[in-house]
Design brief:
Layout: E1 2-8, H1 13-24, E2 32-37, H2 45-54, E3 60-63, H3 71-79, E4 86-90, E5 95-96, H4 101-112, E6 116-127, E7 130-134, H5 144-147, H6 151-161, E8 170-173, H7 174-184, H8 195-201, E9 206-217, H9 228-248, H10 253-267, H11 271-281, H12 293-299, H13 304-315
Parallel strand pairs: 1-2, 1-4, 2-3, 6-9
Antiparallel strand pairs: 4-8, 5-9, 6-7, 6-8
Length: 316
Amino acid sequence: MLSVVVLTYNSDPEKIKLTLLSILMQKNIDPEIIVSDDGSAENHFDDIEKLFEEMDFRNYIMLSSDTNNGTVKNVCRAMGKCSGDYVKLIGPGDFFCDDHVLSEWYGYMKTNRYAVSFGDAVFYSLKDDGIAIHDVAHQPQKMEPYLNDNFKMKKILYLIYGDYISGSALMFERECLERYVTLLADKVRLAEDLAVRLIIGDDIDIKYYKKTVIFYEYGSGVSTSGDDKWYMFFRKEVQAVNTILHERIKHDWFGIRCRICDRISERFRNKYIVLGTRYLLYPSLLRYRRSAVCKTVTENVDVSFYSDICRKRNEL
């Protein structure tokens, strides 16, 4: 079974509804939904329960909190209630790209027994007459190692170059996510997807599911706000994860280079110093260019499922 965890905190009720409907309207799968609220002034649980009743959906759990503890601890709390063998985390405002993505993606994970995979995310924002699609660089930007399934270069790009995967586009095997996000619980507050640095650092492969999976609301969350305050906050979160990572990875030539790159990134904000260090230690990184996958994704966006969701929302 697949558990879909909806993480809320002072969330817009209409965005919660949009996200939940994109789950409830999925075909050929009966997921478990866990709504985990992190101490909101208003958690909207009455409205959520009414929606579940209107959609005749019963396989859900709602978790409330008296205090705001941060996303990482919210995920940890939800993981303790998950029954599925795989987990998809999602935030209000994000929605799945069509009505069969979860059944197909879950089947891909389960059939191949993968621990972690990611698909393509479409970055969007709401406007009066619908949605606007943003031409944002693909995450990760350098896709060749994922397309060729070259784990060595995936690890180098993730840990040395810092070419991260969008957290919105990830699906995890439950035990894997629970194990690694627990390591972050007392050290990281918001960036739960930094667990992937530890996962790939432990030589667990990350597979590319070659389909669009989600529409990610761009600019509304702290990670895409462009606010320098949040940039500095996330730098500290990355540093905390690097401390854990450095205790776990081997003291070989790769481990030494990883530690050097992390120390330079922590000390300097100048991108030329940071990039120069990475390329000096790993000249092979120069051959990897930004992928054209993002352009392909944005050029072939199908928003019909969004229209279906809006139609259903108006009917209820």
